[in-house]
Write a sequence for this structure.
């Protein structure tokens, strides 16, 4: 499959060390007039001009290989021509419709349902962010069960609105804003590199999942019967953490047994990212509710929705509303993107290319002292940095240094993880082998230089 023409041919190309003078001017303007909570340009100081495929150009003419992908939004790549054409055609037709039906909306719903397993037969569009999809999923679960408690997981990320933030484990996001919604309980995720039970995945017998069962069944666990369990089938912001296959299947079974609604958050993993169309498919399960956003809007047009079992469809009209309940341009773009993702089998491509990237990264395990773990699924990958491999003491400063050195050499990466010590790769799924290889080469060089300088 030829995807190379979608990206800039010259990538990577550094003409002026970033941030160049034009970037600096825009960064200075932003610092002067925008809020102090702006974050990404602090780690990747530059201003962007245009993007193509798996590459982006800054305003100073530097061209980067993009392993960041707009935080898992740009699965079909920047400015994909089919998606641009679909969006442009829609802009001159109709752009806003609240939740009044229109042909573009119907086409996206049909496409989405054609990709989902049968019992997930209803789609609901709320506000345009992933956080809003999480809010609506939780409301639906509470309304149906008439229960209040929720179970979420350590390392989980679900968004920034108060309800979604309550479900995030990261204290740096939430501790200044407590209390949030009550009765959210956290259980350990199957983060095998840092197993809280000090077990090894080969012999742990899924102790973390059994612990969850104890929490849900022991009358003295202190946790009331939950309305829902919300979980990422593969964790994103938590550090590209892939649990053993049986972990999610165990939770599914438990939810069946205890009549708890299972919400799988596919906002980051959806639409081919992890090597399957949806990450829950790695475990062979079907959730009760699934959340979608990010790549659903094709090129970053804002949209989110949930899909769920028909029997949960009980919310009376108006129980979850908002001005931007879907976005007509996003419907058209999303439909065109989903067509491209399926026609070109981008999940399969992500699976194959991700495997190649992991193989290429493997040499770091012996050549570098600060790489503790290399992991991921499809094109959602993570490299966890530690001060030394035996203590596993997190090394966020190495991750930051590597990100900065990659940037200077023409590669964009993201940082995440419990300790912000995981380099994360979320490239557009139209990444090609040559760009992937060059990106890995730059990354390895950056790791070496970061280690030499510390
Ligand atoms: C798994 C997951 N859920 C929810 C969200 C929140 O989405 P948004 O930032 O669009 O509100 C994110 C964002 O990164 C996410 O990764």
């Amino acid at each position: 499959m030829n995807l190379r023409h979608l990206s800039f041919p010259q990538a990577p190309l550094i003409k002026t060390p970033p941030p160049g003078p034009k970037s600096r001017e825009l960064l200075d303007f932003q610092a002067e007039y925008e809020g102090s909570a702006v974050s990404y340009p602090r780690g990747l100081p530059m201003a962007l001009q245009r993007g193509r495929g798996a590459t982006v150009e800054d305003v100073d003419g530097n061209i980067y290989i993009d392993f960041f992908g707009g935080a898992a939004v740009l699965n079909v790549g920047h400015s994909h021509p089919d998606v641009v054409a679909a969006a442009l055609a829609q802009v001159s037709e109709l752009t806003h419709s609240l939740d009044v039906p229109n042909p573009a909306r119907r086409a996206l719903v049909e496409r989405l349902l054609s990709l989902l397993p049968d019992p997930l037969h209803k789609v609901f569009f709320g506000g345009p962010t992933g956080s809003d999809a999480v809010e609506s999923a939780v409301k639906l679960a509470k309304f149906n069960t008439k229960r209040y408690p929720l179970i979420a997981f350590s390392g989980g990320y679900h968004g920034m609105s108060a309800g979604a933030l309550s479900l995030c484990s990261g204290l740096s996001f939430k501790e200044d804003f407590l209390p949030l919604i009550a009765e959210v309980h956290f259980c350990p995720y199957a983060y095998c590199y840092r197993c809280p039970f000090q077990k090894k995945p080969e012999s742990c017998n899924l102790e973390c999942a059994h612990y969850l069962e104890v929490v849900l069944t022991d009358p003295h666990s202190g946790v009331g019967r939950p309305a829902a369990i919300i979980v990422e089938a593969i964790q994103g912001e938590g550090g590209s953490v892939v649990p053993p296959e049986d972990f999610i299947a165990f939770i599914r079974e438990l939810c069946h047994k205890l009549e708890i609604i299972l919400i799988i958050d596919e906002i980051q993993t959806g639409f081919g990212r992890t090597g399957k169309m949806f990450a829950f498919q790695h475990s062979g399960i079907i959730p009760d509710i699934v959340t979608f956003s990010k790549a659903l809007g094709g090129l970053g047009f804002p949209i989110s929705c949930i899909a769920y079992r028909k029997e949960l469809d009980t919310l009376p009209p108006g129980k979850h509303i908002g001005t931007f309940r879907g976005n007509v341009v996003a419907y058209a773009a999303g439909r065109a993107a989903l067509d491209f993702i399926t026609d070109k089998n981008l999940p399969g491509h992500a699976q194959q290319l991700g495997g190649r990237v992991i193989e290429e990264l493997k040499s770091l395990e012996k050549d570098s002292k600060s790489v503790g773990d290399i992991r991921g699924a499809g094109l959602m990958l993570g490299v966890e940095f530690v001060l030394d491999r035996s203590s596993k003491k997190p090394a966020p400063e190495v991750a930051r240094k590597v990100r900065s050195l990659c940037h200077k050499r023409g590669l964009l990466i993201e940082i995440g993880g419990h300790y912000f010590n995981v380099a994360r790769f979320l490239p557009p799924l139209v990444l090609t082998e040559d760009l992937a290889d060059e990106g890995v080469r730059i990354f390895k060089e950056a790791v070496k230089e970061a280690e030499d300088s510390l």
In short: The CA atoms of residues 149 and 182 lie 8 Å apart. The first strand starts at residue 48 and ends at 52.
